[in-house]
């Protein structure tokens, strides 16, 4: 019989291969800290540090890893990632002789162990927490990443870059991280990029820029909201770049929220973009129906209101875009019912909410038809093989709308468009997103298609 190969060695060798094959941040975020635990019956048991890593590895790397393990061990194998947090440790304050922290050290130490003061200048909204953030498919990943960051600021994913459309919970998650870490005694600061800009300008005017710098460089967790407003502001970008570097160099956590993905922050300096992309990027997608219903239940409960199930469903069905609208609709209906002492019924909800919204046809078929009409081609041309500009541009618009309006996955969209590959679809959607920034004609055509969908 052949001598069995040592499975721990196989795991190490696989890691070695992956380190070479993958981009560095990917390896460092997801694989570097994994540990071989056991090998049983062709199954490698590997420990990872949290459930977020576990999910990520299962989704994105499992098959690659299995393939490499199989080749090295000479048989088919499986791999099972289990969560085994390492010993939980407070991040070590940077060495006292680190040049950056010589001024700051006292404050850092003092702040970290006196929780009451942690909230003083943090600008946190205390009522936005992890506990009252409702998790669904569209935000599960982002939520888990934020929790991982809050449990171990500066040590897991740095920076964490969160993007998503308006009203999907970016600001809520920043505050949730802030509240959780301030609770632990970390020095936290939440700020929008606009406030950061204003404070900087003010500090120059009043000759207090040293203090301004110190404030920001003293924090353990910096939460920057709406980074898109930093676009085009060069001197602020410069200041922010230095703040960012000092913090991350000292293993302090930076979390950034943006209403668009990195590649669409076209007016940010490249050096900032590359720093932002150096950690982990997560996105928030609009909630699906089930998720919207769960959110409405939670909000009604928070307000101590009993809202009938059919009214909840009515609101959830009519406000599909984001949580802010959803919440607004619930507030209007409940406020009206209370004020006029009327029972909360569907009829009442309709009466109050109807004038404000025109339903849109979300079906993929309707989208294809509306796009075909707008561009004067046929649906079968959209689905067909031709790739001339006359057909490919509308096809990409259809891809974009199927994502944006119908919220289909890339592979699903590919199916609808005559069996195209999901990478082709991804490319198409990105292209339209880019064009929308610069091309008013395409913006207008898209608006017209949307209007058709509302008829
Ligand atoms: P964004 O910053 O992405 O525009 P916000 O974080 O301000 O969105 O969210 C809008 C509103 O919806 C806030 O009141 C927030 O508390 C609430 N909200 C968003 N997502 C959720 C969620 N998943 N669970 C509970 N409330 C949410
Ligand atoms: Mg916000």
Helix content: 40-55%
Give the N-terminus to C-terminus distance in angstroms.
74 Å
How big is the Rg? 25 Å
Biggest sheet statistics: 5 strands, parallel
So what's the oligomer here?
single chain
Bound molecules: adenosine-5'-diphosphate, magnesium ion
Which strand order do you get reading across the main beta sheet?
5-6-7-4-8
Would you tell me the structural class of the helices and strands? alpha/beta
Please provide the ordered H/E string of secondary-structure elements: HHEEHEHHHEHEHHEHEHEHHHHHHHHHH
Identify the overall geometry.
globular
Treating each run of at least 4 consecutive H or I residues as one helix, how many helices?
21
Low-confidence stretches: 87-116
In terms of DSSP E residues, the strand content is 5-15%
Number of strands: 8
Mean pLDDT across all amino acids: 86
Describe this structure in words.
With 455 residues, this protein is an alpha/beta fold. Helices cover 55% and strands 10% of the residues. The chain contains 21 helices and 8 strands. It has helices at residues 7-21, 24-30, 51-73, 105-113, 115-118, 140-151, 170-183, 193-205, 209-217, 234-249, 270-276, 289-302, 309-318, 323-339, 346-353, 364-375, 379-383, 389-404, 410-416, 422-438, 440-454; strands spanning 35-40, 43-48, 78-83, 160-164, 188-192, 221-225, 253-258, 280-284. Strands 5-6-7-4-8 form a 5-stranded parallel β-sheet, with helices on both faces. A 3-stranded mixed β-sheet has the order 1-2-3, covered by helices on one side. Helix 3 (51-73) links the parallel strand 2 and strand 3 (78-83). Helix 8 packs antiparallel against helix 9 (209-217), helix 16 (364-375) runs antiparallel to helix 18 and helix 16 crosses helix 21. The radius of gyration is 25 Å and the shape is globular. The model is unreliable at 87-116 (pLDDT under 50). The chain binds adenosine-5'-diphosphate (ADP) and magnesium ion. Residues 170-171, 225 line the site of magnesium ion (MG).
């Amino acid at each position: 019989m052949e001598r069995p190969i040592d499975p721990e060695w196989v795991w190490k060798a696989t890691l070695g291969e992956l380190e070479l094959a993958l981009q560095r941040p990917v390896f460092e975020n997801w694989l570097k800290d994994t540990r071989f635990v056991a090998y049983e019956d062709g199954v490698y048991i590997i420990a990872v540090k949290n459930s977020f890593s576990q999910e990520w590895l299962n989704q994105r790397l499992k098959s690659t890893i299995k393939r490499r393990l199989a080749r090295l061990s000479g048989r088919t194998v499986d791999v099972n990632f289990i969560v085994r947090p390492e010993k939980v440790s407070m991040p070590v304050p940077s060495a006292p002789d680190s040049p950056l922290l010589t001024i700051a050290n006292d404050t850092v130490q003092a702040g970290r162990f006196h929780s009451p003061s942690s909230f003083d200048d943090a600008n946190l909204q205390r009522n936005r927490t992890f506990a009252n953030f409702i998790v669904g498919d569209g935000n599960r990943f982002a939520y888990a990443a934020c929790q991982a960051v809050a449990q171990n600021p500066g040590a897991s994913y740095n920076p964490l870059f969160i993007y998503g459309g308006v009203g999907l919970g970016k600001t809520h998650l920043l505050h949730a991280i802030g509240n959780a870490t301030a609770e632990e005694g970390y020095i936290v600061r939440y700020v929008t990029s606009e406030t950061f800009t204003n404070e900087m300008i003010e500090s120059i005017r009043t000759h207090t820029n040293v203090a301004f710098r110190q404030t920001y460089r003293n924090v353990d967790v910096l939460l920057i909201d709406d980074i898109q407003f930093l676009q085009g502001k060069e001197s602020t970008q410069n200041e922010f770049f230095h703040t960012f570097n000092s913090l991350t160099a000292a293993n302090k956590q930076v979390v950034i929220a943006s209403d668009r993905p990195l590649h669409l922050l076209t007016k940010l300096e490249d050096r900032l973009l590359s720093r932002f992309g150096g950690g982990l990027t997560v996105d928030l997608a609009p909630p699906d129906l089930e998720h919207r219903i769960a959110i409405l239940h939670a909000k009604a409960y928070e307000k101590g209101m009993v809202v009938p199930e059919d009214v909840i469903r009515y609101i959830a069905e009519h406000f599909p875009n984001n949580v802010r609208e959803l919440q607004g609709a619930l507030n209007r209906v409940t406020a009206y019912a209370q004020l006029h002492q009327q029972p909360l019924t569907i009829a009442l909800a309709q009466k109050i909410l109807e004038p404000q919204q025109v339903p849109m046809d979300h079906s993929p078929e309707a989208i294809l038809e509306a796009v075909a009409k707008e561009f004067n081609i046929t649906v079968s041309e959209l689905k067909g093989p031709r790739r001339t500009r006359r057909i490919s541009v509308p096809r990409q618009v259809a891809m974009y709308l199927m994502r944006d309006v119908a919220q289909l996955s890339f592979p699903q969209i590919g199916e609808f468009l005559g069996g195209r590959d999901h990478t082709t679809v991804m490319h198409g959607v990105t292209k339209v997103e880019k064009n929308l920034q610069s091309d008013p004609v395409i913006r207008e055509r898209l608006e017209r298609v949307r209007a058709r969908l509302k008829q």
